[in-house]
Amino acid sequence: MASAYDGKSNFDSELRIVLIGGRELHGNVSKKTFTGNIILGKRCFDTSRRTSQSEVRHSVVYDRQVTVVDTPGWWWHYPLKNTPELDKIEIQNSVYLCPPGPNSFLLVIPLGIAFCQVFKSSLEEHLKLFNSEVLNHTIVLFTVETPYPPNFLKQFLKDEISNWPALQWILDKCGSRKHILNITDSQNNFQVLRLFEKIDAMIAENTKTRYLVDELTGKSLKARIQTLKEKASERLAEVQSQRKKLRTLIEGGKPLPQHLRLVMVGAQWSGKSSAGNTIMKRNEFMLRPGRATEYCEVRHCAVTNRRLTIVDSPGWLYNNSLSNSCEMDVFEIKNSINMCLPGPHAILLVVSLSSAFNDPYQKALQEHMSLFSDYVWKHTIVVFTRGDWLGSKPVEERIESEEGLVWLVEKCGNRFHVLNNKIHDEEQVTELLDKIEEMIAGNVVTYYHSDPQEAEEIENQRKAGQKKAKRIMQVTQQQERFLTELFRGEKRLPQNDLRLVLIGRKESGKSMAGNRILFDEIFGTAWMKKEFQVEQRNKKAVKHQARIDRLNMTVVEAPGWSIDTAPDDWMINEAKQSVHMCEPGPHVFLLVVPISQAFSQSDLTVVDQLLEQFGEQVWRHCLILFTWGDWLNNRSVEEYIARGGTALQRLLEKCMYKYHVLNCNRYNDEYQVINLYQKVYTIITRNKGHYSISMEEGLRKGQAVLTEEEWYTREQELIDRILKALAQETQEPKTLPLKGVASIDGAFIPSMSHEVPSEYESARWVLPRGHAKVAEWLDMRVWSSCQTSGVHSYSENLTDEDYTTEHFPEKIQKEVCQNERRRNSY
User: Fold this and answer.
1) Distance of alpha carbon 687 from alpha carbon 326, whole angstroms
2) Domain match, 434 and 513 both
3) Which of 34, 118, 612, 666 has the fewest beta carbons closer than 10 A?
4) CATH no. for residue 101?
5) Where a domain ends, among 384, 418, 450?
């Protein structure tokens, strides 16, 4: 075959290519690795495992010497600080594996992924691992896995760029250089030849100047990698020596318990439930997208001739401090050791290898482990999940690369084990149980003693919390019935505009809530949990609008405050500005409270200070919007409120028990938004319109108020008194089952434990679907009738019969009833 470059001289005889890019959230294989094999024309890279270190391969392709370096991929939605240090080192080292340096980088992006702003931020940070010239030598390589006609692919790519502005930003930075590669079509010679032509054109554009590497940095990286390997070997030898001594004790006749009691603790998404299932060799612990465990769960089994009792406990939010964890989770974690009396033989501290064990992670772990006595560390083994993330690297090398991991394993007496929850390997389970028995043999006391008195106290607290939760549910049901009767038959005010203000602290989910309400990704980042975002500071109030059916929606997000900080004048002024940004005034203030975190007295003080400038009347227009509803799973929001402390309960009283739960993680439950709209209309009906700051200022200045307004004020005061009276009732409800929001939503975050494959739905069809459902509801429920007040909301407390009496389209009736049955089934 003649060379495709016959007669051409404007190219380098050797191509040195470095493949870079992130890792798909729901993918188990790297598109970069497949790309390398397609370019080289044969299977040079191993696609059966993750690329954990930069690997170089060579081949002669169409009479040219081609060198390709594959690098570890980062999670597309992670900032640089969450990428493991070992991965950073390997990515940096990639440019030194193809001397004198690469003449091209291929930024691999699967065509069709939702490339949102978070991915752009992640890419910007990870590109800092190279020098500032990297994008001048980069081509964006879009991969596909299905054969498509060329014209279709061109239009598809054009649509993707239009849908995701972050893609256009990347292309602009790369001089609009791009290529589409089918990574499943190894016989298509043209696509590789065309890629080489584009690389040659880029090289010529750069006047044949290659990417310059710093030799001193290269030597430093090489020395660091060598040091890590040496330290890893030393740690492995130390562990083997320690285990040998302990095995000698067992072989010498040291008695071991016939029944092992194990408790698993760790951060959320670390893989506790999956680790438990791997140990038991069957799916005993339920796995769900998003949060898997909300209560302590106990399972029993027999494995390798050993009887086991395993307790799974709720995880804390990745980098949440203990004081910021919600009380329900703290309660369950603390109670975990009481679930296997007289106490566990081993505490399995589960840590995922797919994320960096950085300072926030370490601090959160240390604080939550302080719920137990310091003696707990003598009975603790670190269980590393996502063993597949190591690839060909030993875990000891990963430990030595991060100071936090060194601290952790030494705190546990150098006891650690790796589990790969993706495979069913009996040997890894047997070895873990052997290590547990060795730890028991080395301890003077064979198990961690729980305190029976503390267990009894915790049980009493649980019962008190359940009783209070029922009481809160009773109050809200009574108020709903009362308001329904009070405003039944009242003519609805003309309502073509709806104006909302979001108020809450940073990382509370305000932006996500705004996006859910407007069915668009316009308030900052909506596709990931904010603990993985770069914190935005000094943010001003932001206003966005949308039209749904005949309704003009305006949502304003006020700046959030940091934990345990008082608002300054700037923040108070911005809160006031947020009200002026939706003149003549907002209909409802949505006070955003994340269920995954605690609501402190400091938070309540800030809310009071921000709202006091609007007068006491403002509370009538307030609704508590609980975000991260998926954190509840089978628990009720009332249980969260009951266990949330006096500050949260005081806020609930101020808002007259008006609240709503929203799952912010995905756009696949439009009924939550419809229900929120319904509750907003209830508030508007009760208040006869929107909040007006000018009216409040007039009252303060002693200006004359119209008789009609006086009557309105008296009427509102009467309603408030009745609602307060209802709240003071002591009668217990006859039947008030605690039902949770039980969402199928999951966090937009990789399954670091491989509990379930992470997945997400494309906003291209989910957002319009939700928008259409809300528009249909508005048209049929709101505009069709002025005879009803809209107070009667289809909440979780209503029956299927209640739903069907409403004026919903038949399709919506059916789906809502199915959704309610699903919730009742829990």
Assistant:
1) 33
2) no
3) 612
4) 3.40.50.300
5) 450
**Are 410 and 508 in the same domain?**
no
CA-angle at 166, arms to 161 and 169, nearest 5°? 90
347-401 confidence digits (pLDDT tens): 999 999 999 999 999 999 999 999 999 999 999 999 999 999 999 899 999 999 9
Tokens of 282: 């069957």
User: What pairs with residue 141 in β-bridges?
Assistant: 108, 179
The pLDDT tens digits of the residues spanning 488-536 come to 666 565 568 899 999 999 889 898 899 888 877 788 654 444 444 444 4
Q: How many domains does the chain have?
A: 3
Of 11, 39, 7, nearest to 206 (Cα)? 11
Q: Within this chain, do residues 111 and 153 fall inside the same structural domain, yes or no?
A: yes
Provide the token pair at 760: 């997400």
CA dihedral of 475, 480, 481, 483, whole degrees rounded to 10:
120
Q: What is the DSSP letter of 210?
A: P
- Give 310's strand partners: 262, 299
Q: What six digits make up the tokens of 448?
A: 């961690």
Residues 6 or more apart in contact with residue 471 via CB below 8 angstroms? 642, 732
The identity of residue 499, as a single letter, is R
Domain extent for 60: 14-213
Cα 148–Cα 145–Cα 165 angle in degrees, nearest 5: 80
CA–CA distances in Å: residue 214 to residues 92, 95, 265, 473, 718: 11, 10, 44, 65, 76
Cβ proximity of 62 and 193 under 8 Å: yes
Phi, psi of 269 (to 5 degrees): 65, 15
Which two tokens mark 87? 């991965």
Provide, rounded to the nearest whole percent, the portion of the chain with pLDDT above 90: 52
Separation between Cα atoms, residue 820 and residue 826, nearest integer Å? 10
Taking the C-alpha atoms of residue 241 and residue 244, their distance in angstroms, rounded to an integer, is: 5
Nearest Cα residue to 33 out of 72, 76, 84: 72
In whole angstroms, give the CA distance from residue 435 to residue 415. 8
306-312/297-303 β-pairing: antiparallel
CA atoms of 611 and 556, how far apart (whole Å): 15
Render 282-326 in DSSP notation, one character per residue: S--S---SS---SS-EEEEEEETTEEEEEEE-PPBPTT--GGGB-
> Given pLDDT bands bounded at 50, 70 and 90, which one contains residue 804?
very low
Question: Buried b / exposed e across 555-594, counting CB within 10 Å, b at 16+?
Answer: bbbbbbbebeeebeeebbebbbebbebbeebbbbbbbbbb
Cα four-point dihedral sign 768, 773, 774, 780: positive
> What's the pLDDT at 692?
83
- Within this chain, do residues 171 and 240 fall inside the same structural domain, yes or no? no
pLDDT at 184: 87
